[in-house]
């Protein structure tokens, strides 16, 4: 019997038993990218966190509708109320149509997510394709009395909402704290209070992205798209809403307020947030100008990188930390992840070559039990990886004969590895360089040299044997001699 899945619910600040609204069907909405630049390392944390959850729920037999939005309008420079839309700004500077910018970077995002092993969501709605839904949602909030029109813009009345509900329930803030922390920005004279936020903005004459509405030619506020699109595709109440911890306030706080004002209740039952990737203790992101794009990660062309790192190395690096803990970038940590991933894949290769015996010298079912218990405990991927590494020792021992397993137990282990390493963790074997349409050229070349070394040893040509081993070691390939042949791994 599998353990019950628990998730940490940010709204209640505790782990809760996960229960779906509809048995065996899960609705999950995750805030996706704003497509005005290349995806960077910070973008990969939420993508991989919720890809892990998506994969795990599917592996557990749930039918999952995973909605991940694309923000291609309504994302402004400051607090989503003032400033210039980031996509419109880039389009103006590069003399392009805004949708050219959005399409180009959306395609780039898809390309890099595919390289990272991130599955496509069930639905990927664009904010620009759901303007009418957002206008309708704004009207519902106006009709409920929690918003007001001012000079063609519509603002959410935070104070009026807070008198009936609790604005700040997700982030733990109260209105007095928000008043103290709110900056006074130019152009906020249309608001009744500085902390009110835009549901719809009247476009200035030079603003490129604009749509007609009952209030003005303008565009929706940043927060509005998620409330409108999540409920359109998942219903007025759904199971999981996810995103990075940096979105908790104000974005997700505003979403809760909008949805509660329009619907009478929050739309999401579980709010799940991943923590940040940091560099020198500071959040990695464009606003801090300390980000590393995925393209730079993969080609090594960034001053903070000592070498290039493969997509699976980056994925493994992220999975080695619990999604709610911070993850600090360092070359040492990435190099360790690279070696660890190679060790895991070499162990799996050793398992594939193992031959059955009459008896088993270990409990083959224990690995699956440990992985299941870890993942069911708030997606504890580090503990899943720890269990797998414990069994890598057994996999290698099976290959050299110091451990034995029956044919049935070998199949159990192989099925467990396929389920957890490939299906749920989403890892791929990248130990060898690829060329010629993805064909592995390194493995046959290394094994040809090692077979030559075996022949040299059989002929007692120790000089040639040592020369082959030393030259392979020099390029980062460690050779392990076994009584029935050899094994090797990339260090």
Structural topology:
Layout: E1 6-9, E2 14-17, E3 25-30, H1 41-59, E4 63-68, H2 86-94, H3 98-115, H4 131-144, E5 147-150, E6 153-156, H5 158-164, H6 175-181, E7 197-202, E8 211-212, E9 217-220, H7 224-234, E10 238-244, H8 248-263, E11 268-274, E12 277-279, E13 282-283, H9 294-299, H10 311-319, E14 327-328, H11 331-353, H12 366-376, H13 381-400, H14 407-424, E15 434-435, E16 439-440, H15 442-458, H16 462-474, E17 477-482, E18 485-490
Parallel strand pairs: 3-4, 3-10, 10-11, 12-14
Antiparallel strand pairs: 1-2, 5-6, 6-7, 7-9, 8-9, 12-13, 15-16, 17-18
Helix pairs in contact: 2-3, 4-7, 4-8, 10-11, 11-13, 12-13, 15-16
Kindly state the percentage of residues in helix: 40-55%
- Assembly type of the shown chains? single chain
How many domains? The number is: 3
Q: Low-confidence parts, pLDDT < 50 over ≥5 residues?
A: 432-439
**Taking all residues together, what is the mean pLDDT?**
90
Radius of gyration: 27 Å
Spatial strand order of the main sheet = 5-6-7-9-8
CATH architecture verdict of the largest domain:
3-Layer(aba) Sandwich
The tally of strands reads 18
Q: By CATH's scheme, which homologous superfamily of the largest domain applies?
A: HUPs
State the separation between the terminal residues, measured CA to CA.
39 Å
Number of contiguous helices: 16
CATH class of the largest domain: Alpha Beta
Assign an overall shape: elongated
Summarize the structure.
This protein is an alpha/beta fold and 491 residues long.
Give short descriptive properties of this protein.
491 residues; Isoleucyl-tRNA Synthetase, Domain 1; 44% helix; 16 helices; 18 strands; alpha/beta; elongated; Rossmann fold; 4-stranded parallel sheet; 3 domains; 5-stranded antiparallel sheet
């Amino acid at each position: 019997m599998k353990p019950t899945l628990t998730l940490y619910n940010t709204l209640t600040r505790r782990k809760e038993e996960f229960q779906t609204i509809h048995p065996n069907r899960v609705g999950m909405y995750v805030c996706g990218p704003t497509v005005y630049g290349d995806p960077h390392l910070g973008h990969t944390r939420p993508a991989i966190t919720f890809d892990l959850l998506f994969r795990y729920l599917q592996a557990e037999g749930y039918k999952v509708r995973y909605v991940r939005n694309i923000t291609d309008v309504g994302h402004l420079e400051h607090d989503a109320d003032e400033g210039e839309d980031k996509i419109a700004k880039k389009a103006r500077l590069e003399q392009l149509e805004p949708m050219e910018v959005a399409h180009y970077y959306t395609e780039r995002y898809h390309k890099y997510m595919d390289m990272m092993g991130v599955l496509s969501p069930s639905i990927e709605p664009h904010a620009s394709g759901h303007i009418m839904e957002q206008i309708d949602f704004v009207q519902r909030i106006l009709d409920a009395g929690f918003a007001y029109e001012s000079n063609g813009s519509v603002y959410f009345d935070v104070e009026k909402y807070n008198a009936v509900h609790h604005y700040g329930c997700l982030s733990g803030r109260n209105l007095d704290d928000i008043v103290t922390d709110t900056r006074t920005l130019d152009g906020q004279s249309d608001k009744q209070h500085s902390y009110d936020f835009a549901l719809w903005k009247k476009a200035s004459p030079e603003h490129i992205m604009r749509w007609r509405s009952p209030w003005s030619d303008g565009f929706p506020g940043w927060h509005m798209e998620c409330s409108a699109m999540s409920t359109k595709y998942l219903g007025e109440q759904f199971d999981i809403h996810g995103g990075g911890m940096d979105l908790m306030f104000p974005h997700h706080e505003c979403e809760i307020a909008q949805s509660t004002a329009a619907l009478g209740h929050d739309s999401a039952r579980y709010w799940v947030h991943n923590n940040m990737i940091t560099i020198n203790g500071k959040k990695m992101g464009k606003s801090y100008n300390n980000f590393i794009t995925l393209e730079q990660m993969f080609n090594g062309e960034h001053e903070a990188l000592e070498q290039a790192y493969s997509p699976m190395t980056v994925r493994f690096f992220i999975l080695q930390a619990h999604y709610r803990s911070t993850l600090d970038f360092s070359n040492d940590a990435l190099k360790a992840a690279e070696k660890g991933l190679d060790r895991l894949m070499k162990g799996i290769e050793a398992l594939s070559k193992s031959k059955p015996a009459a008896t088993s010298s270990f409990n083959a079912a224990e690995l699956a039990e440990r992985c299941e218990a870890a993942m069911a405990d708030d997606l504890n991927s580090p503990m899943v990886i720890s269990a797998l590494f414990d069994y890598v020792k057994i996999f290698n021992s099976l290959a050299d004969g110091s451990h034995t397993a029956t044919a049935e137990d070998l199949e159990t282990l192989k099925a467990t590895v396929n389920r957890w390493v490939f299906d749920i963790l989403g890892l791929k074997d990248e130990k060898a360089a690829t060329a010629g349409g993805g064909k592995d050229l390194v493995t046959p070349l290394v094994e040809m040299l090692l077979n030559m070394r075996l022949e040299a040893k059989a002929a007692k040509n120790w000089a040639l044997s040592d020369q082959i081993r030393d030259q392979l070691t020099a390029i980062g390939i460690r050779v392990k001699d076994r009584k029935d042949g050899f094994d090797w791994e990339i260090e």
